[in-house]
Write the structure tokens for this entry.
Amino acid sequence: MKKTTLLLAVLAFTMLSHAQRISELTVEGITSLVPFAAFNPTNYDSSKPTQVPVPGTGEIIYPDGTDLSNVNVSLNVGTDSYIETPNPLPTDWSSTVSGIRVTKTASPPVIWGEYNITLKKIKPAALPLEIKTGTGNFDSNSWTTSTLGWAGACIDKNQTLIRFGSVKRSFVVAFTDAPDSLYYTIKYLTTSFPTDGTVVFDVDGSADGINWTSINQYNATNPMPLSSPAVKAELKIAPQYRYIRWIFTKRGSTNVSLENILVTKDSTTGNATHLANSVKLYPVGSKALQLESSEDVKSLRLYNITGTMVLEKMNPGSEISVNDLIPGIYIGEVRLKNGNVISKKIKF
């Protein structure tokens, strides 16, 4: 089996307490889906005897099928640091490698930090792919090697949504079918989005996991929606895509949350016009909607003009009460059990 080389570059900070930091990981000959990201460790520092060292976590994501079981590993570190352990480095990176200790060369004081690093492989899922967030639906700690459709690189822990707390944190979805549309809700968790270029957040698509195309970039001229009101992104995407990634490319001082992702299946191989016409959704007066469909309906959602979901019905009947809604313009999203999603504009 051909061996490849794994390179980790360690960024040496001028402050001694932050000298032991792994900032980059690459595998020679193998392209990752996202950059290396890390929760940095709490260092051991002999000049601070009460400071308890805590290992950091490093993560990066590769396509399913990537062979990481027999690799020659090389670690590049800053001029004031070196890799103390493990020595020699392992050749099998198919599971988490623990106890990678980066030690400061100069002494005293003696300073070191440790990392546990996982090279994740994402398994693609069939479309439609829905990642519904919220309590009881999503746990940011729940990824395992058998998880289908998604993987995160150091998304915030212990969350019921997908939260990005630092630069280079990322989230990827992978799927086996040709997609049609991408839906998600994203929020910049403060009261204003910077206009000075200090924040960039990318949403990209790829057919092969190597060549990426921008789907959306949030920046000074295209600000991200804020915490309130929630705004849902609805984007037509290229049918050749098999991966979509969200990356905090350039971070200021505020976190980003990602919620309720849906990738729908391309229906162009069938009769899309017939499909759209097979579903009818229209008002009956100002207090009810009439739903008619020749296909089995999984759910109905209504969104107001700001993109906020105001109503959700699972396995809806033919008549849906809207008695609690203010008359106006809404977007009805009908999800069929065959995976297709049909949108209808409604005014009542």
Observations:
- The CA atoms of residues 135 and 248 lie 24 Å apart.
- The first strand starts at residue 4 and ends at 11.
- Confidence is low (pLDDT under 50) at residues 9-18.
